[in-house]
Amino acid sequence: MRDPHILPVELLESLGVLEWGYTEDPAPRSFERFDRWVAAGGHGPLSYLSDHRKDLRRDLRSVYPEFQSALVFLFGYQPAKKWLNENSKYQLAAYTLGFEGEDYHHALKRRLQTIEEALDVPGLKAVVSLDVEPVLERDLAHRAGLGWFAKNSMLIHRRHGSYFIIGSLLLNKKLPLAPAALDVDHCGQCTACAEACPTAAIDVETRTLVAENCISTFTIETFKEQEPPAGFDASRGEVFGCDICQDVCPWNRRPLERSTGVLNLREPFRFLKEWLLDLPGTELEGLISLESNRSFKKKFSGTAFDRPGKTGWLKNLRAALRPSRSDS
Is residue 103 among the annotated active site residues? Predict the structure, then answer.
């Protein structure tokens, strides 16, 4: 499967690729489940999953009509995750700092373009696919042999767990590679993810999320003041995103044990350590309160943290710091 003449191992390692796979199948196997989930309202406030883009996810040729094959890559962030476990007083989703502090959409787009340039195939054209495109990217990775759908809806790889971001190149040609064998379910009877979720956001029977209950939805996708989902007071005080279901997954234990905790931040993003990892919560809340909406946006531009805006961040901090949570 891995052909160094197609993709040099040294290049992929330098770009943080944990594993890669190949598929020529344009149709996701989980679309009907996704469609039922949306019809039942499981997507909650995430309207971009139910609008005109929903049906585009039926087939990759809706996104790229010339599609013939795809290369799919798992970009890991275990070093940042381990560093946060060992050093941070705040609960942040580790992917936010796993790519030198930069928003992974920007960082991984450049890395995928570097991989595209390394492909020496005459006439080859590629479209970069991340989670902003109407593509069921976990299904695409599954079809490329890179894991199975876990009970928390995430993709798990047997060696690398789930602390990774999926990025793909949709190609206009087939490559001299054998399509991968599909992985099977390895969750067994384990329900650790659902049992650990304080807001009951995981439906283990359908392997989907109840988005309106999910802490990540509340802390990332909700831009105005509102109450957190029921059960949040029993959480760890997440201020941006949530890794709870990943943190308790047995498949993530060994990947973290093999990793070395490292936090690398590019120069424009080094302030993130002081602001989001070192300052006491009340002091951080005060600093953000003093920022105008425009200056807040400018300060956090280029990171994952600007999405909910100033109002969303204050909502997150107040929910994490409120007495009812600290007393739980």
Answer: no
